[in-house]
UniProtKB/TrEMBL annotation:
Species of provenance: Shigella sonnei
Domain Peptidoglycan binding-like: 38-85
Pfam families for the chain: PG_binding_1
Recorded GO MF terms: N-acetylmuramoyl-L-alanine amidase activity
Coiled-coil features, chain-numbered ranges: none
Protein name: N-acetylmuramoyl-L-alanine amidase AmiD
Matches recorded under InterPro entries: Peptidoglycan-bd-like, PGBD-like_sf, PGBDSf
Documented EC number(s): 3.5.1.28
Signal peptide region: none
Length: 96
């Protein structure tokens, strides 16, 4: 096995472990509140217009899920969706 392949494999597993850690944290500690989730979705680039209503918030979460978690896009913020969002922000917007 060459070093490049080994490095790619190592990075893959490191990312999966980070995501799993975030998922387990949200499962045990609870999902962040709506204000925090909306703020983070805005940071990632999603429009937050209409999130004042339950339907608007659900549509925003569903849009995120359709892009990043197609197996379940019910619009309900859960531990897996939150973990994906936080992992993406950590990777692409560190320090925010």
């Amino acid at each position: 096995m060459n070093a490049h392949w080994s490095s790619k494999k190592s990075n893959f597993f490191r990312k999966k472990i980070k995501l799993l850690t975030k998922y387990l944290f949200f499962e045990s500690q609870g999902i962040p509140d709506k204000v925090d989730i909306v703020s983070r979705l805005k940071t990632y680039g999603y429009s937050i217009s209409g999130v004042e209503t339950d339907d608007g918030y659900k549509a925003l979460v569903r849009a995120f899920q359709l892009h990043f978690r197609q197996k379940n896009y019910d619009g309900i913020m859960d531990a897996e969706t939150a973990a994906i969002l936080y992992a993406l922000l950590e990777k692409y917007f560190p320090g925010k």
